[in-house]
Design brief:
By secondary structure, the protein is an alpha/beta fold. It has twelve helices and ten strands. The longest helix has 16 residues.
Length: 265
């Protein structure tokens, strides 16, 4: 089903795919698209049928960033007007929405991902890139601070020095280099991108949903926590998971030498 001309949504076997659909503008995100995306993310969080979310772009680009229509007028705003704008700007809400979503999120990066488009991929849990993918933190070329959590996410993926280089220069990074520095999980031929992405999403969707939700939470908490705190968190989660039907199914499947069939309970 489609929510608008600028966003397409499809759902199949536990996987929801959101496609940014402004190929003529390399899928630059408008404010209306931003608001729609936030509403979709809220819906995904409450939909028990959705086990994994995929975000991709139509045409030859993933996302060229925020649509700059009206930017010339916004540079005249006062500090008060900018602070008021920050409170309602949907782009600044994406990072927390994606990080707090209790479903795995995969970015299928089919082409150029720059500025806010690049930042959008950073908020996802996994990034699979087409050989045609390219990335740029081009905020500096507009004399702006990288936003949408870029200064938080990028150093944690590629290290502080590489993140500084990318943010200071705004240089384009191709798919091969993105894989080398750990920015993406996998690079595949362009024609195989969605096949590879769906295969990974399907594998995750068939897994024990409660367990995966807790793993996602623990991984990101682990970036900030001490080892002692993390060990306690893991033990607490395991005590919960021992009581799930999925854990019992996993044990029975192992003993019976078959693949487990998880039901998210």
């Amino acid at each position: 089903m489609a929510t608008s001309n600028d966003l397409m949504i499809t759902q199949e076997e536990g996987i929801m795919i959101i496609t940014l659909n402004r190929p003529e503008r390399l899928n630059a995100i408008t404010l209306d698209m931003g608001d729609s995306l936030l509403k979709i993310l809220e819906t995904v969080g409450q939909d028990k049928e959705v086990k994994a979310l995929v975000i991709t772009g139509a045409g030859r680009g993933f996302c060229s960033g925020a649509d700059v229509t009206g930017q010339e007028e916004r540079i005249k705003w006062s500090t008060v007007e900018r602070n008021e704008w920050r409170c309602v700007n949907p782009f600044l809400k994406f990072p927390l929405m994606l990080r707090n979503l209790d479903k795995p999120v995969i970015a299928a990066v089919n082409g150029v991902a720059v500025g806010a488009g690049f930042a959008l991929t950073l908020g996802c849990d996994i990034r699979i890139a087409s050989e045609n993918a390219r990335f740029s933190m081009m905020f500096v070329k507009r004399a702006l601070m990288p936003d949408m959590g870029s200064t938080y996410f990028l150093p944690r993926l590629v290290g502080a020095a590489k993140a500084c280089e990318m943010m200071f220069t705004g240089d384009m990074v191709d798919a091969k280099e993105a894989l080398r520095i750990g920015l993406v999980n996998k690079v595949v031929p362009a024609e195989e991108l969605m096949k590879a992405t769906k295969e990974m999403a399907s594998k995750i969707a068939k897994g024990p949903a409660i367990t995966i939700r807790l793993i996602k939470h623990a991984v990101y908490q682990g970036v900030e926590n001490s080892l002692e705190t993390q060990l306690d968190m893991e033990a607490y989660a395991d005590n919960m998971l021992y009581l799930t039907e999925d854990h019992q199914e996993g044990v029975h499947a192992f003993l019976e030498k078959r693949e487990p069939v998880f039901k998210g309970r």
